[in-house]
Design brief:
The protein is α+β, with helices and mostly antiparallel strands. It folds into three domains: 65 residues, no CATH class; 54 residues, no CATH class; 125 residues, Glucose Permease (Domain IIA), CATH 2.70.70. Strands 3, 4, 6, 7, 8, 9, 11 and 12 form an eight-stranded antiparallel sheet that branches. About 5% of the residues have low confidence.
Length: 284
């Protein structure tokens, strides 16, 4: 066993001479002596240096944003929100241009008199004016019957509120001035506030988006299902950044009120199909 170990060490330590000769004079220009152990050690050292160099580049440069786990970087999230708002603005502008072209085509074909559209903006709104957003009589009747059925399902709110309060710690969905509060008799099922500019709407708990629609009241509506039959409803005049089926975490940004944007916001909290007062659990 010792002879084998000695032979192995001798092979590793045995040095080889690498020479570079002049082709014409055969004079030795350069030479180096290396052993197998030296080559292995040098290769290992170079690998370590490369490893730390790559790790440094990943940690200290924006490359880290492409790695799993670094996508929650606050700067990256802020940039994503800004890009989403820009895309939304461009989409709205594109729709306006399409409406303008449709109106212009109607004028050129003789379907619309040129004098009937005094401004470019009015001309672009010809198509959109044909769409009525007012609720029909059937919609109003269905809404009244639905709200009446919900009132019959309201049980003891005090017992429900104690269960939610002792089990969950909810974060505030938004900060602002409360302009309307929960009132079952007046069929007000949530809290309405005017949010502070440059603030965001946040998810109060972990959950999954079960609905993301646009209501007849010209509001974007987002519904999130949480544990134990808790559902939160968010209503704003700004589009949300979450789609149906998306998982969200407590405190995650749903939309942002930028400067100059309408910061109207409604929030509803439902437990087991019963609306409860959000002000009992959350400070806006």
């Amino acid at each position: 066993m010792e002879n084998k170990l000695d032979n192995f060490l001798k092979k590793i330590r045995f040095k080889y001479k690498i020479s570079i000769l002049n082709e014409n004079t055969l004079e030795e220009v350069f030479h180096i002596r290396l052993s197998k152990g030296t080559v292995v050690g040098a290769g290992f050292l170079i690998a370590i240096v490369y490893f730390f160099l790559i790790a440094f580049l990943i940690i200290k440069t924006p490359i880290r944003g492409f790695l799993p786990g670094y996508t929650e970087n606050i700067n990256l999230r802020r940039q994503l929100m800004q890009d989403a708002l820009v895309v939304d603005s461009l989409s709205e502008q594109l729709d306006l241009q399409i409406q303008y072209m449709e109106g212009l085509r109607a004028v050129m074909s003789g379907k619309v008199l040129l004098d009937s559209a005094s401004t470019t903006q009015a001309l672009s709104n010809i198509t959109s004016d044909k769409i009525s957003l007012e609720p029909s009589e059937r919609e109003i009747a269905y809404r009244d019957s639905f709200e009446a059925s919900e009132l019959e399902n309201i049980n003891s709110i005090n017992s429900t509120s104690e269960e939610v309060e002792t089990t969950y710690l909810m974060c505030s969905p938004a900060k602002g001035r409360v302009i309307d509060t929960f009132n079952i008799r007046k069929r007000v099922y949530g809290t309405t506030i005017v949010a502070v500019q440059n603030t965001s709407v946040l998810s109060v708990l972990d959950g999954i988006v079960i609905s993301s629609d646009y209501s007849f009241r010209n509001l974007y509506v987002l519904c999130i299902q949480h544990a134990d039959n808790i559902v939160t409803v968010y209503k704003t005049r700004q589009p949300f950044m979450k789609q149906k089926g998306t998982k969200v975490h407590a405190g995650e940004i749903l939309t942002t009120f930028r400067n100059g944007m309408d910061s109207y916001f409604e929030f509803e909290l439902w437990k087991d199909g019963v609306a409860v007062n959000p002000l009992t659990y959350i400070s806006f």
